[in-house]
Write a structure and sequence with these properties.
four-stranded antiparallel beta sheet; 0% helix; mainly beta
Amino acid sequence: QVQLVESGGGFVQAGGSLKLSCVASGNMFSTDTMGWYRQAPEKQRELVASITRSGTTTYADSVKGRFTISRDNAKNTNLQMNSLRPEDTAVYYCVILRMWPARREYWGQGTQVTVSS
C-alpha cells in the first residue's frame, strides 16, 4: 500500500511563493507518475502538474510559467509555486498515477493553499 504525506501549504499574499512537498511510502514502480491536483470550492478538480520518473513534466495552462514540479527520487516530489494569484487558492493533493501493473491512483490528505489579494 502506498501512502502520501504533503507539507508546505499556507497563507500568502498575491505575488508570493510557496513550496509544497510530498513524500511517498510503500512500494512504487518506475512507471509511476507523481503529480499535484487541486480542488477549489465550486470548481472542478484540476491536475496542476505531473512528473514521470524520467523527469517528463506536464502543467495545466493556468500555472505554466509560474509553477515548477520536481522529483528528487522515486518517492519525493515538490511543487514550487511562484507569482501566486487568488485563483490559486485551493486544497492541493499529491497523487501517484499508476498505469502498470494496473491503473490506480493514490492520494494524499491534501494541504490548503490560500492566496489573498
